[in-house]
Design goal:
The chain has 234 residues and is α/β, with parallel strands linked by helices. It contains two helices and 16 strands. The strands form four sheets. Strands 1, 2, 4, 5, 7, 9, 11, 13 and 15 form a nine-stranded mixed sheet that branches. The radius of gyration is 22 Å and the shape is elongated.
């Protein structure tokens, strides 16, 4: 936080000098402060439109989009922007935030379509994540051993949940798999020892391996009545 405080002081000082030169020393102090506040608001809006400072971006798809990874970012909340240098940020890179153990939350924009393998592996302090309805794939081990994760929203745009995607997320208590998902990979939720209920949508046609093995508290798996490949019993 210290570096942000220093940055703020520098901006305020420079803004004050600029306002003083432009509108004169006789301008009421309250008016100066109002002008400085407005300028700072727009300045910081532009600054943080680029996302959390320190994030790293890599050109992908023949230079038409960017993937994002942690880089040198050290904030507990990560804000991923929807664009960078005028191009969309569409992918959270493989191992992008691997073992970023003190990140507690992340904002994923609607521009992101893919969360690649091991993207958030070992992010032990991550407590909740909302995946936007632009994402179509969750890669293998994407959230593996995110033990602090207590809730996750899988949108009705995701078509595949990769192997071990949420493996050993021991804090999860329930999962709802939407109708858009067609495949659940092996060990996708293995070892989610706090999981008590799962709802599977009507689009799932492939469940491989043992996606719910070692989920000792799991009592109910409800399959949508519209699913022609699987059904609930009991």
């Amino acid at each position: 936080m210290k570096k942000y405080s220093n940055l703020t002081k520098q901006v305020v000082t420079k803004m004050d000098m600029c306002v003083h030169r432009r509108i004169g020393e006789n301008t009421p102090k309250a008016t100066k402060l109002t002008i400085i506040t407005l300028i700072m608001y727009f300045a910081f809006s532009v600054l943080f439109a680029q996302g959390t400072p320190g994030l790293s971006y890599t050109l992908i798809n023949n230079g038409t989009a960017y993937s994002v990874s942690r880089g040198t970012a050290d904030a507990t909340h990560i804000e991923i922007p929807d664009t960078y240098n005028g191009l969309p940020v569409t992918t959270i890179a493989e191992q992008g935030f691997y073992s970023f153990s003190f990140m507690t939350s992340v904002t994923i924009p609607n521009s992101v379509t893919s969360i690649q393998g091991y993207a958030f592996y070992g992010c032990f302090s991550l407590t909740s994540v909302t995946i936007p309805n632009s994402v179509t794939s969750i890669g293998p081990s994407a959230f593996y051993v995110c033990t602090g994760l207590t809730s996750v929203t899988i949108p009705n745009s995701v078509t595949g949940i990769g192997s071990s995607a949420f493996r050993n997320c021991t804090g999860l208590t329930s999962i709802e798999i939407p109708n858009s998902v067609t495949s659940i990979g092996p060990f996708a939720f293995e070892g989610c020892t706090g999981l008590t209920s799962v709802t599977i949508g009507n689009g799932v046609t492939s469940i491989t391996g043992n996606p719910f093995s070692y989920c000792y508290l799991l009592e109910t798996i409800t399959v949508s009545t519209g699913n022609t490949h699987f059904r609930s019993e009991g």
